[in-house]
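Work through this protein:
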Amino acid sequence: MGPLNGVTVPEAAVAEVRDFILSLIEPISAVEAVPLAAARGRVLAEPLTAPFDVPAHTNAAMDGYALRATDLDPTAPTTLPLFGTIYAGHPHPTPLPPRAVLRIMTGAPIPEGADTVVAQELCHAEGSYVTIPPGQTAGQNIRPAGEDLKAGSLVLPAGRRLTAADLGLASSLGYPFLTAYRPLRVALLSTGDEVIAPGKPRREGQIYDSNRAVLTALLTHLGCTVLDLGAVGDDPTYLLAHLNQVAPHVDAILTSGGVSVGDADTTRTALASLPAFYFWHLAIKPGRPFAFGRMGNAWFFGLPGNPVAVVVSFIALVRDAIRKLQGETPLTPPRTYLVRLAQPLRRKPGRLEYLRVTLDPNDPEGAAYPLPTQGSGVLSSLSRADGFLLIPPDATILAAGDRFPFLPLDGLL
């Protein structure tokens, strides 16, 4: 798929466009040392290996008594003298003598000579002697050194988006910092004479800009640093100059509105003459117009103007591009699962539809109810939705009970 030089490709398949965009984007190279307290959600730039075995020493899995299994009578209780106590962090200074036991706490090192731990609640201690019941198994209740991780083994691969559990794991290995890709710098801009910022007096025909608010939230959720460029009116010359001014200072630019083929679609007019810019009419609902290209060092994503279409386009196309630019790998897709449609529907074929639905919490099969208003500008329906039911392009008559993939919004918005 070569540069389209201002030509719009009609009804382009979403998956094809996504794969094409990802084939061009390469991760940024800049990395930095990040303290663990600030590393959640960052993308690891260097693989993390274990500097030592985990556990570092063979230890007790529970409070009890350490002993030799060969000292026990397999058919009757065995009474042995108590040789001392071992606490976590305090190895016993001498080996365990034959036919003796050591009181041991969870996590404490297994003493030389011992090979079994018997839970304290199974034993009877009286004075300096302990009675152990029959039926014990050699090696029980012992965690061997390196059971979790071997020294030198891979713990976390490069490209992983770090979770709270990852940070706890890194801390347990003694790492105070991790090497991560620096945060992406992303510029946001809305277009249209009718768009004004919240807080300003609204004249007839004007609308408050919701797109920058939702895109800022989506980008910061991915760990990006957002530069808000505000809104620009329908002036392609000024718009292009504005974008050229910011492009050298950011990694990506996202605009909303003006990328279709109408007379007032100034974003498309401003960019159509630039080399290596692409324009599509996507086979997706809501949303259709989409632009992609390169401005200096910045990747450009031109989204539609209606707010629900903005969110759908971001999830379908921009989200994975941002993740790849951040260095994340592999790009695992959001999890979906099959749910049944609660009511029949008829629709026009031809586009992959992101149908806004709510789920019945009392239905074990997850019945999905479409929101009554599905317009691309009806942001309130997206706010009320539990997620999207993904309806394939060729589906026309949908029966109640038909099953479709459900994409939860939890974790995406």
Remarks:
- The two ends are 31 Å apart (CA to CA).
- The mean pLDDT is 92.
